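for the writeup, i need someone to sanity check this before i put it in the appendix. the sequnce is what the collaborator sent (i think, or maybe the updated version? ugh). structure was predicted straight from it, no edits. if anything looks off just tell me and ill rerun, i have time this weekend
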Amino acid sequence: MKRVSPTSTNGQTAVGHSPATEALLYGGFGALGLALGYFLPHLADWLARLPWAPFQGPARLIAEFDGPWLRVVLTALGGIAGLVIARAAVREMLTAVVTDAEVRFEKDGKRYVIAKSDIGSVFTDGKYVVVLGKSGCELLREKIDEPANRWADAFRKHGYPWSEDGDPYQEHYRRWVPDTPDLPAVVNALLKARERALQKKDRADIEDLRKELVKLGYVVREEETRQYWRKVPGPEGRDRG
């Protein structure tokens, strides 16, 4: 397989989704939206003929007004909807600009800047890129959509401490069980709430509770619904969120 290097210009290296990925998303979702919009009258007519089918009211309405102009309008609306979904998908992808002094991460229209001097190690954990501070505090954990070697190349090029062996604190994690006596009550409560969020697969709540734990000086990771924690040895900075 041909290895593609991250894009480098003016002393900085950009890494994240490629133009080809973006074009594929826009083209794919746009084409799917156009097709769904065009064939929607056919689907509506079919549903209207089935007494047990759901959405009988809307289906009959579309079938009744079916005609050339309706097909044009629905096709156009489907295409627009597909592009909107593609835009949302692109915005959710993590991108970064790496320089010799800092890293500028961007996702969901928000930018997070981490100075090189504050970074102790960088590595990938499954589908996530993780940035740790000097004392082991987790400064960033975000899902990536490109191969890990592209991220590794970008950070190594600018002299960042990329950890080839993954998390350097791997041996420091302990399995969490309810009401662990070594943990403060507030930390146990947050981990208990996060366990429920993991069981429900509530990604937003899982991430919010992780950030709250980071603020208290605890790093947490999970395997399915099992949680593992470690205490950061000293105060350091703040979580990127």
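Confidence is low (pLDDT under 50) at residues 235-241. DSSP finds six helices and eleven strands in the chain.
thx in advance!!
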